[in-house]
Design a protein that fits this description.
single chain; 1% strand; Ammonium transporter fold; mainly alpha; 2 strands; 68% helix; two-stranded antiparallel sheet
Length: 400
């Protein structure tokens, strides 16, 4: 008999994570220019369909079956051998619930990348990218860290996706920026800041399912992850607001929301492994690190339109390193002791994995875009860019 409380909670958490993909579409859509709002929102929404089909066919199996060091096998392709009564997580929940929960992670991760190249990539090339980036980047890291692969065997920890989701997507975004190149008109004027606010609020709301749900049951770790998520995001939000106000002399609303997302991304790998007080420190350091990254991007004029690398890539990287410092077995006996508690080897392992993940995601994404360009044009033409993707590719307008 399944644990009905944990099963119900996990269904709710799954729904919350699903909501994050439309929320991301609102967040990115509001930040984009008027002529590209539908184009970037469609890149998020289309992942709901394509990634689900891919997950059903082979994705779940490649991530969570077999004993391979890097990737799974096809034993569970098309959910073979799994029924609604198949137990998972020591029999607490049905495996179908876990399948659905992890599918929502797979849906949003490649969508995160799209904010970096808004208004510059053809829809056909993006669809190819959406499929092969998951097959060759996302699925291997899921298996290696969460599916019994080599990194999990080595003791690498990532509670809810700092490595698997944010480092991989953030540094893939940076690679896409370098490959695709700059926009003709570099200055980006958000078309709808209230839409950004709606997206931010829904992302924050959904993130409770993203982090707390990763415990896969209802217990004291679930509560810790939930509270750590909110505390880190809150401290990051106010830290960003203070930094930007000091720098510009004006409190910026978009900056406030950017700080919130930075805090949420940074606490993700550590949410269920660190004490509550550490979440506050992580939130402060999250804004310091990501704000500096965005400033660095601006200095060198990397055209990461919506700061995906600075917020998600650097946020996930920072959170993974800080997990190596603040993790405590007193908080979670299934975790590890970080540098602060004498766990030097664990800290060095987290640093090494963060660096290697960033390098792999960057280099492989750049190579993948180069190969896709041999099949179909990746970058839009100057005429299409001038007209905007909404009109030139989708023949629709957000505002008539």
């Amino acid at each position: 008999m399944f644990d009905t409380g944990s099963t119900g909670f996990m269904l709710l958490a799954t729904s919350l994570v699903m909501l994050m993909t439309p929320a991301l579409a609102f967040f990115y859509g509001g930040l984009a220019t008027k002529k590209n709002i539908l184009g970037i929102m469609m890149q998020s929404f289309v992942s709901l369909g394509i990634t689900t089909i891919l997950w059903f066919a082979i994705g779940y199996s490649l991530c969570f079956s077999g004993s391979g060091a890097i990737i799974g096998n096809l034993d569970k392709a098309f959910f073979m051998g799994i029924t609604s009564s198949t137990p998972f997580a020591e029999g607490r929940i049905p495996e179908f619930v876990f399948i659905a929960y992890q599918m929502m992670f797979a849906i949003i991760t490649p969508a995160l990348i799209t904010g970096a190249f808004t208004g510059r990539v053809t829809f056909k090339s993006y669809l190819i990218f959406l499929v092969f980036w998951q097959l060759l980047v996302y699925y291997p890291f899921v298996h290696m860290i969460w599916g019994g692969g080599i990194l999990q065997q080595w003791g690498v920890l990532d509670f809810a996706g700092g490595i698997v989701v944010h480092i991989s997507a953030g540094f893939a975004a940076l690679a896409s920026v370098f490959y695709v190149g700059k926009r003709k008109i570099a200055k980006l004027q958000p078309n709808n800041i209230p839409l950004v606010a709606i997206g931010t609020g829904l992302l924050w709301f959904g993130w409770y399912g993203f982090n707390a749900g990763s415990e896969l049951q209802v217990d004291h770790i679930t509560v810790t992850a939930f509270l750590n998520t909110d505390i880190a995001a809150s401290f990051a939000t106010i830290t960003w607001l203070i930094i930007e106000t000091i720098k510009t002399g004006k409190p910026k609303f978009v900056g406030l929301m950017t700080g919130a997302v930075a805090g949420l991304a940074t606490i993700t790998p550590a949410a269920g492994f660190v004490p509550i007080w550490a979440a506050a420190v992580i939130g402060i350091l999250a804004s310091l690190a990501t704000f500096f990254a965005v400033e660095l991007k601006n200095k060198y004029r990397w055209d990461d339109a919506l700061d995906v690398w600075g917020v998600h890539g650097v946020g996930g990287f920072t959170g993974t390193i800080l997990l190596g410092i603040f993790a405590s077995r007193l908080t979670n006996s299934a975790g590890a002791d970080g540098l602060l508690y004498g766990g030097t080897s664990f800290f060095l392992l987290q640093v090494a994995v963060a660096i290697s993940t960033a390098l792999y995601a960057f280099l492989f994404t750049y190579l993948m875009l180069w190969l896709i360009d041999k099949i179909t044009r990746v970058r839009v033409t100057d005429e299409e860019e001038d007209l905007g993707l909404d009109r030139s590719i989708h023949d629709e307008e957000a505002y008539t």
